[in-house]
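Folding problem:
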Amino acid sequence: MHFLSKVIVGAALLSVASVLPAASQVKLDGFFLAEEACPAFQSIRKQTNPGNVHVERMRAYELLGKNKSQASHYFIRMNGVNPAERWVDVSCGLHLVEADGSGQNTGNGSGGSAGSNVVRPAVKGPSADAEFLLAASWQPAFCQTHQEIPECSSQVEGRFDASHFALHGLWPQPRGNFWCGVTREEKRLAEERSTRGQLPPVELDDATREELDKVMPGAQSHLDRYEWVKHGTCYSDSAEEYYAESLDLMEQLNGSAVRDLFAANIGEVLTTAQVRAAFDETFGAGAGNRVQVRCKGGLITELFINLKGRVEPDTPMSELLLAAKPVQSDCQGRVDPVGFN
């Protein structure tokens, strides 16, 4: 299973402290990304923890050092607590070095993102409370406002995405968990559709590539590169793993009563209640409450599907849905057919 999320884009962190406590033998630069809600100790030996402070899962902290070369603990700064300098077990998360474009990496890389260094402790992976959002588009509705891009100008009735959900992306949560170990140049290229083709191609097995091109028509305009750089790098070191597991989830969605409901009602209006009932039918009572139906201009454009847990090959989506948090949704819209209005 993947390691979750390698950097959180958020508030700017303070500069690294120049003086470390005696127990800190090795000064470090960069950030500590917590993958678990671990205790943050004032003293390693005494295990003292004033205020019973814990690091927040999926949050990045300023990294000051570690207690020895083969470390058991990282020394971090936690703004807003007293004392602010704390020790956390290395198995709790990741040591991240900010991407600067220098390409001088000394550790294992971050899946092709040059100029960044991710130093991984020997941990087994994220806990079962990892959260994701699967964004599944209804492509004909998306294309109404993007008629000029290749995947929309070429869409025809017989193509897969005319009657099945298309993969937009699988997004590690919380929102803002983007661009993990990515250089500024990669981010700049990804943010403009016109320059995404200058990003390195996403390396996938032939079978995965074939399936992705079918289920993610946006790959024609390099959406696969954008989603990997922005979201996939926060999911796994492997683009193959990221997309193979995303496609497995999409296969379950497109093999469900939800897809059947949409395919049988092309040109008709559906309500959130109807969509959620179809989720309940396939994935279990209450599953639909984890889904936000998104509408624009009177059309259903996308489903935002909340998931929680370990995403492994063949993980039942029902387990991931029912473990996730319910979400508000009050949208009804038409299921758009292929063609521009």
Summary: Residues 131-334 form a domain with the Ribonuclease Rh; Chain A fold (CATH 3.90.730.10).
